[in-house]
Amino acid sequence: MAVITYLEAIRSAMQEEMQQDDNVFVLGEDVGKGGVLNTTKGLRDMFGEDRVLDTPLAESAIVGVAIGSAMYGMKPIAEIQFADFIFPATNQIISEAAKIRYRSNNDWSCPIVIRAPYGATGASALYHSQCPESVFFGTPGLKIVAPSNPYDAKGLLKAAIRDADPVLYFEHKKCYLALSADVPEQDYIVPIGKADVKRQGTDITVIAYGIAVHYALIAAEELAKEGISAHVLDLRTLQPLDKEAILEATAKTGKVLIVHEDNKTGGVGAEVSAIIAEELLFELDAPIARLCGPDVPAVGNNPPMEKFFLLSPDKLKEAMRKLAMF
Amino acid sequence: MSGTNGRLIEVTVPHLAESLVSATIGKWLKQPGDYVEQYDVICELFTEKVNTEMPSPIEGKLVKIIVGEGETAAVGEAICLLELPAEAGREASVGSGGHQEAAVQSGAALAVSGDQSMRGRYSPAVHRLAMDNRVDLSRVNGTGLGGRITRKDVEQFIASGGASASASAGFVSSSAAAAPSSAPAAPSAAAMSAQQANQPASPAQAAPAVSAQEAAAMKQAAHTPVRSSGLHLSANPPTPLIEVEGQPSDARNEYFIDVTPIRNAIATRMRQSVTEIPHAWTMIEVDVTNLVVLRNKVKDEFMRREGINLTYLAFMMKAVVNAIKDYPIINSVWAVDKIIVKRDINISLSVGTEDSVLTPVIKKADQKNIAGLAREIDELTKKTRAGKLSLNDMVGGTFTVNNTGSFGSILSYPIINYPQAAIVTFESIVKKPVVIHDMIAVRSMVNLCLSLDHRILDGVICGRFLQRVKENLEGYNSETQIY
């Protein structure tokens, strides 16, 4: 075991998979020198320019090339430098990658991974802060993961690379250096489609993913001192959602708070809420609550706007306390 | 604190770059006790990305260094304390102090309030728990917002043994409270059984012990209006897309079939035809002995060559078409101030199925020989019975031939296929004793029945037309070419 950051966990997952399988390669803008966020740092020195491919500034081409090479048996990891710029590639992802298996009646599949660093870190404003997961969320044929800690980050990326279908891997930029943990050096995966209980509790259930899980855990520790016991479920996989885990965690307390940084309207939380409402009415002890980003395009650049927009342990604490008191 | 009555402000590590979470303090350039202006550099900051000088965000006196040189602090964490100048400090302290007080007060108000407005509002979970464990909720203490009883409250109540106590005594009141929800069902069931008792008991009614729901359903079915007389028959009934059969009625000796769109169309057209067209009717008897001989001679060969049955209908059709050529007025439509005579002879053929009758059209029948008509008849009847007729197969008919003989009829009074001018039926061919030259012979005889639009056609013209059909049919002999 070694204590590594979320960023290093992602890098080590790519490195190990590239060592194990010659078909795995990385492509994206500036990945050769490590990318602007240093996720691929050192990989070109280890695997050469042929397997760590610098691309032009054209996201549709990055994903298009990835899909094409996957058709030839390769296993590309496409990096979108910032998730905000994934939209030029959306047509490739939704119209092609997601549908290849279906439209070929299982003859073809599309084993690509698209890594998209997302979320606001503060002071980065509109085009380096967005959470675009809900755009892809309703597309059958895509898998979407969003790990919240270094262990899950490494295990889920390995699972994504080995998956025979397209996986969108949303890594929260604020987790990169802020979170570090003991991560096993031996090979392991975190299965796609399985949520994880990050904290046991009896009063309220918080369902979250990404950095929000981290905030929920901090808030839960503080609320424990006030006698409020919070159960924290990390979705880890957004598509497909782990329905059983969602229902189980809800039934545990009957009071649910769903938290994500993405906009509230039409976000993943809306679907989670609908699942609970459809299946578990008689376990509910309070209205299903959501704490999400407001419905504005993205975080503003000035500190008051950031504070207004972004989630924080304090905001979660307040929402959790309110739910506990209901 | 100092005697200047100033307020202490924390100076924090700023967010210097994307993905930056912490910074290390280099050298402190100001020391405790130094007075700093806004934007004066107070220390150096080292990060993974940039090294920078830290400007003071405000003016004030540095009172304490929290993070020493070489130590690392997270973004947002305090590195030192500055004391505001007295005036600014007082202002700030009044403002924020007032705020805090209010917050504390509101928190306290929530905790100790006697607000019980939510006391009687139960969540689904609380309801279910109370039902399952027979808990009298009026005995449970509510700790939620507005005195609401939470799921936890009920669980604690059960755990403390409250449930068993209430099971004996308390549940009575609980069930009384729950009664309103089941109440609407009870009276209706009672009413039904009373109603049944009053009615003369039919065996079907007396036999089953009906549940309340079934009784209610039956009651509703009995109230479904059934049209049997009156003006409403001229209105179009609702036409559901599916047939629904067998709703039980009160008497149970009848059942309903909803009117399907096709049945509605038939009904509408028939009513239109008999109300708009003054029908007259005439019949003629035809000796088709020679036709029978002819058909028996060629039908097996025809079956082998064409793969279809050569029916009498094809010969009948040919005879009718040729007669129409001689009397084109038969092939016409009443247009109030005009009579429209159609040049194309398109024969509608009545084809019956189990639950309807359709009239596909043989287009330009005058341009087809007997074999061609036989093929067309075969194709259209097959399509009709398979339900595969297209709209195009159904339109453009100018005269209708109805093969009523196929089900053994010898006499019909057909209703004209609106807006055509006439319709003829071809009845069963029956062997009969017939007088020929004062001798009795056994001949194959058939009746042709004609209904006519008396606005367009009269007896003489129709008589001549039928005579021509008769001549044509009787004119068939073993030499007749069917191709």
UniProtKB/TrEMBL annotation, chain A:
Q: Which Pfam families match?
A: Transket_pyr, Transketolase_C
In what residue span(s) does the Transketolase-like pyrimidine-binding domain sit?
A: 4-178
Q: Which SMART domains does this chain map to? A: Transket_pyr (SM00861)
| Cofactor requirements of the protein | thiamine diphosphate
The record's keywords, sorted A to Z, are: Oxidoreductase, Thiamine pyrophosphate
Judging by the UniProt lineage, the source's domain of life is Bacteria
Q: Tell me if Oxidoreductase is a UniProt keyword of this record.
A: yes
The answer, when asked if Oxidoreductase is one of the entry's keywords, is yes
NCBIfam families, sorted:
PRK09212.1 (NF006667)
The protein's name: Alpha-ketoacid dehydrogenase subunit beta
Phylogenetic placement of the source organism: Bacteria, Bacillati, Bacillota, Bacilli, Bacillales
UniProtKB/TrEMBL annotation, chain B:
EC number annotated for this UniProt entry: 2.3.1.-
Instruction: List each copy of the Lipoyl-binding domain by range.
Output: 8-83
Q: Give the transmembrane ranges.
A: none
Q: Which InterPro entries match?
A: 2-oxoacid_DH_actylTfrase (IPR001078), 2-oxoacid_DH_E2_comp (IPR050743), Biotin_lipoyl (IPR000089), CAT-like_dom_sf (IPR023213), E3-bd_dom_sf (IPR036625), PSBD (IPR004167), Single_hybrid_motif (IPR011053)
Q: Does the keyword Transferase apply?
A: yes
- The source's superkingdom equals Bacteria
Q: Which UniProt keywords apply?
A: Acyltransferase, Lipoyl, Transferase
Q: Where is the composition biased (Low complexity)?
A: 190-222
Q: According to the UniProt record, where is the region Disordered?
A: 190-232
What sequence ranges are listed for the domain Peripheral subunit-binding (PSBD)?
A: 121-158
Required cofactors, per record?
A: (R)-lipoate
One Pfam family for this entry, by name? E3_binding
Keyword check for Transferase: yes
| Family, as annotated | Belongs to the 2-oxoacid dehydrogenase family.
| Annotated protein name in UniProt | Dihydrolipoamide acetyltransferase component of pyruvate dehydrogenase complex
